[in-house]
């Protein structure tokens, strides 16, 4: 098979400022070993996140020029609404400024003290918004999700018997919703099968519990279903996407991922009463229901972005990028979560640094090393992100894995950028014995990874 090429040409370029390893060592210290505190200018290849970091298409930029900035009833809103209705089948489409705004509204109207919200895995903002209402967020992934080497095709799946046990233990009346995150970001960008979503739906029906998708990466998930699920290869990504949404009572979407925009979010609900309450909260803190805290031009960019992301040439290239990186890293001996995720590669930092215990944050040590060695910015998903204490002061349970995520912005980096990144990671792996543990100097109670200050031990 020939190389799968980037299915686009580049019309506008952004220069990268080259730096040396010695320069980066100083910058890393000045940023207290927290790559969130670096200036983006000081990064060569920024794999911190795939969120809001993508390149928009010429058609999206054309939409930006067309943006109708009327306060209410802007034509841009109706184009956005029509596009989202076309893709998801939902009637009620609320725009928000990003995913976590949708989450905050959703949990405020549906969760609360004493409630339990199970999911395959809650993303950090999802968990924080859930817990902020006094509810408890519980993860019930299949056991394979915690085994980096398991090549289960749908490691994002929910463990159905465990889900049922959680529902029975809490009492169905205390479970306001079940969340299915597609793809499962914190679990390695792993997809959820259609069969699994259908099984969750059936269970939710039995206990009369709404099913909500955290649908940030719905198109990548649908592509995996098409590639991996028996009988699905003949279906279009669009029809798979539609079935995923048809199975849900609601969805939160950060459009900064598969919406292909730099800012934007969506909240989808079917129940008219909930739509009414969500609209009231939207007006309270985001903006009027036809712009939700965005500019009209942002709605235009989303309207177009949601159509572009389901193009299959794009998805083939997109998912191949992650696979290509996975192949190169595994060949260099670097253990990653297998198989490759849709939007990112996750390095198993416990394997990378067997000499650093979880209490000394092996993931953060790898993140620091990657920046110093290659100017690559990555993100820890392990004891830094998920450790610390709950609002009531009790320690959080230890995460199942110590991971470092290399997330891939959409349509931004070329194959040579990825080759360089793979070479840098292999170089660091060869000298991994020199990596030192990390300690926390200062950290807030919630979402500490964003602003914590660290030091090398
Ligand atoms: N849900 C998932 C699965 C996510 O990955 C994110 C964001 C959100 C919700 C929140 O969306 O950022 O628009 O408010 N993930 C980004 C990331 C930040 O880097 O993975 P948001």
Could you give a short description of this structure?
This protein is an alpha/beta fold. It has helices at 21-30, 58-66, 75-88, 99-110, 124-132, 160-170, 194-207, 218-228, 237-246, 272-286, 296-308, 312-331, 349-352, 362-374, 383-386, 415-430; strands at residues 45-46, 92-96, 116-119, 136-139, 178-181, 211-214, 250-254, 265-269, 344-348, 376-377, 379-381, 403-407, 438-442, 453-456.
What does this structure look like?
The structure is a single chain. The chain has 457 residues and is an alpha/beta fold. The protein is globular. The model has no long low-confidence stretch (mean pLDDT 96). Bound molecules: ligand F0G. Ligand F0G binds next to α4 and α5. The site of ligand F0G has 16 residues, from α4 and α5.
């Amino acid at each position: 098979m020939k190389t799968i090429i980037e299915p686009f040409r580049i019309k506008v370029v952004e220069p990268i400022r080259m730096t040396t390893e010695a320069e980066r060592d100083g910058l890393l210290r000045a940023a207290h070993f927290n790559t969130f505190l670096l200036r983006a200018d000081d990064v060569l290849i920024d794999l911190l996140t795939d969120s809001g970091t993508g390149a928009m298409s010429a058609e999206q930029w054309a939409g930006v020029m067309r943006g109708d900035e009327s306060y209410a009833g802007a034509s841009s809103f109706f184009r956005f609404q029509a596009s989202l209705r076309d893709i998801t089948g939902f009637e009620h489409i609320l725009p928000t400024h990003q995913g976590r705004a949708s989450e905050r509204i959703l949990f405020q109207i549906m969760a609360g003290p004493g409630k339990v919200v199970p999911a395959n895995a809650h993303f950090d903002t999802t968990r924080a918004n859930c817990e902020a209402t006094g509810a408890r967020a519980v993860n019930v992934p299949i056991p394979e999700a915690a085994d980096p080497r398991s090549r289960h095709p749908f490691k994002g799946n929910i463990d159905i018997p465990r889900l049922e046990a959680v529902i029975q233990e809490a009492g169905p009346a205390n479970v306001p919703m079940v969340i299915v995150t597609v793809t499962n970001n914190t679990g390695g960008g792993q997809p959820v099968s259609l069969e699994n979503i259908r099984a969750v739906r059936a269970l939710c029906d039995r206990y009369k519990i709404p099913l909500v998708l955290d649908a940030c990466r719905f198109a990548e998930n649908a592509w995996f279903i098409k590639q991996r699920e028996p009988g699905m290869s003949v279906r279009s990504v669009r029809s798979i996407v539609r079935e995923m949404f048809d199975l849900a009572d609601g969805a939160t979407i950060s459009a900064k991922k598969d919406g292909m925009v730099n800012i934007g979010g969506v909240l989808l609900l079917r129940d008219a009463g909930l739509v009414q309450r969500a609209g009231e909260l939207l007006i309270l803190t985001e903006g009027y229901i036809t712009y939700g805290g965005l500019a009209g031009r942002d709605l235009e960019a989303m309207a177009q972005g949601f159509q572009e992301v389901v193009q299959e040439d794009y998805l083939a290239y997109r998912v191949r990028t992650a696979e290509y990186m996975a192949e190169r890293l595994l060949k260099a001996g670097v253990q990653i979560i297998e198989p490759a995720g849709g939007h990112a590669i996750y390095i198993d930092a416990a394997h990378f640094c067997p000499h650093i215990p979880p209490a000394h944050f092996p993931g953060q040590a790898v993140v620091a090393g990657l920046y110093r060695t290659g100017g690559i910015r990555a993100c820890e998903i392990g004891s830094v992100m998920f450790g610390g204490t709950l609002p009531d002061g009790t320690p959080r349970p230890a995460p199942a894995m110590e991971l470092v995520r290399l997330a891939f912005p959409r349509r931004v980096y070329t194959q040579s950028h990825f080759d360089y990144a793979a070479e840098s990671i292999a170089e660091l792996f060869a000298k991994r014995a020199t990596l030192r543990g990390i300690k926390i100097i200062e950290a807030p109670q919630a979402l500490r990874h964003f602003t914590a200050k660290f030091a090398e031990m």
